[in-house]
Amino acid sequence: MQYENTPVSQNIEDRRGQGGGGGGGLRMGGGGLGIGAIIIVFAISYFTGINPAILMQGAEIVTGNNGNSSYQEQPAKSGPAADPNDPMRIFLSHVLGATEQVWAVVLPQQTGVKYTPAPLVLYSGATRSACGGAQAAMGPFYCPLDKKVYLDVSFFDEMKRKLGGGGDFAYAYVVAHEIGHHVQDLLGILDKVDALKERGSQTQANALSVRVELMADCLAGVWAANANQKWQILEQGDVEKAIATAQSIGDDKLQTAARGYAVPDSFTHGSSTQRVKWLTAGLKSGQIAACDTFSQ
User: Fold this and answer.
1) What is the DSSP letter of 264?
2) Distance between CA atoms of 143 and 178, rounded to whole angstroms?
3) How many CB atoms lie within 10 A of CB 125?
4) Strand partners, 151
5) SS3 category, 34
6) Distance CA 280, CA 288 (A)
7) What is the CA radius of gyration of the chain?
8) DSSP string of 113-161?
9) pLDDT at 243
10) Of residues 241, 245, 253, 258, the one with CA closest to residue 50
11) What is the pLDDT of residues 80-132, one digit of tens each?
């Protein structure tokens, strides 16, 4: 991935080297995982050796804190300051900058909605979010209550070691997916889905979660298509690596690897085939309208 010519975002909050501040547990509701699902994830992790961050697939929307938006940021414990010249931080600042510039044009142009950037919080091990405690085992996630994306970059090492995914564009795809959730939030989609989940069964809630996650995959593709048109970011093999990553984190593949079979009613992110389909739809079209996963 050629990212050096893309803009650099200053919208990164680097908490690495600071105290965890992860108290309060995993308070997840709405689009996130319930406590029962968390237990299952950690049980699967125990028997397969797959890090729970991978099982949660780097695509969670955490909406916990009991819907209380009165959260106030707690001061982190002192520790070694994060290195501003860290190559991963530099890379992520380019990816985030590219998402900001693309969506600032594409979102109002295609939907009439103004784009407001979402900060990217980098942390190590644990930190705090408006949705409760953020821990590495949760994987990257978007918190609608503070409009931030949270990422422990060790997740990328797990992608590479455990699932064979990796490469700059695959990592950018993960970030772009989470920013896709922010776009959904700005469009009012997350609130509507949460309201529907409250009125339905767990199976229906799971099906809605799949639609939300597949749309975020597609929006990641929309971003990549427009970024490539503007800065020629894609190199040979980049798209294939991103598709391989999408395939490796499909619910069917993870469940089959864990217990020998898949249970579609329990899917929350979509099958490998679905994830590839929607990522590809966004890449080919560059249009938000191509990402209507709820009517297909």
Assistant:
1) G
2) 10
3) 16
4) 122
5) coil
6) 13
7) 18
8) PPP----EEE-SSEEEETTEEEEGGG-SEEETTTTEEEE-THHHHHHHH
9) 78
10) 258
11) 456 768 899 999 999 999 999 999 999 999 999 999 999 999 999 999 999 98
